[in-house]
């Protein structure tokens, strides 16, 4: 027992051990204080985006203060640790390549404007809304998969930040918060194609016209920022005549979060408008006609009976 106490006293008398204990205790206290601030202060902020950024800023400041505290405690021994850090750092860098890559990805995301919380992106083959960006991982609320039309499916996905260096990053809402979507409408031959086109143009403008002013404004900024053509924003209707029907295609701008809703409104209005034409414009559909097989009469002759009779 006496030897154990002696060893503990000798161990605690080592200045390096003492400083390590001071650093550990100090970091725990700093972590508790900043965790309390992170949970208390943001609740008084109404705007969700500002609240999220405030919480992230508080956590980041806490990490910086922990690092500064450790440097302050060991300021007289940093020279002795330089060689050790150099040797150990090489091994750590090799063993933690993915972690280092994710940290570098976080720096690139923060400074390079790849995406920000609230953006809809496709990253690592997964599409969803960015709900959090940490030092190592990006958290997405996933869209699609078994749920169509870019709606949430309920899964939360965490992707390593290093993916920004490995795969393309598709951002649906960065500089231009709209998409061009298309629907096709088959119209039966014999219908008045000019009237059909007028109806489709009118419906597309009424349903999606609310997006045009803001989309034009954002697209104008895009043409000033990037080398890109001045594309048409207004809905456009085109016609292709194939073997079965006249196929009209409506191309229109839509908010990346409203694709399914607007598509439903478009088809509903088109059906109503076509019905109001009293047969002048009709939807086409594929029909299959089954032809009845002809009747086959088979007559059998009994040769044996004929031979017996003769």
UniProtKB/TrEMBL annotation:
Localization of this protein: Membrane
Entry annotated with the keyword Membrane: yes
Entry keyword Acetylation: no
Domain Mechanosensitive ion channel MscS: start-end pairs: 99-173
A GO term, aspect molecular function: mechanosensitive monoatomic ion channel activity
Gene Ontology cellular component list: membrane
Highest taxon of source: Bacteria
TM region(s), chain numbering: 20-37, 57-75, 81-109
Subcellular location, principal: membrane
Keywords: Membrane, Transmembrane, Transmembrane helix
Membrane topology classification: Multi-pass membrane protein
A Pfam family that the UniProt record links to this protein: MS_channel_2nd
Family under the similarity heading: Belongs to the MscS (TC 1.A.23) family.
Protein name from the UniProt record: Mechanosensitive ion channel MscS domain-containing protein
Organism: Calothrix parasitica NIES-267
Organismal lineage: Bacteria, Bacillati, Cyanobacteriota, Cyanophyceae, Nostocales
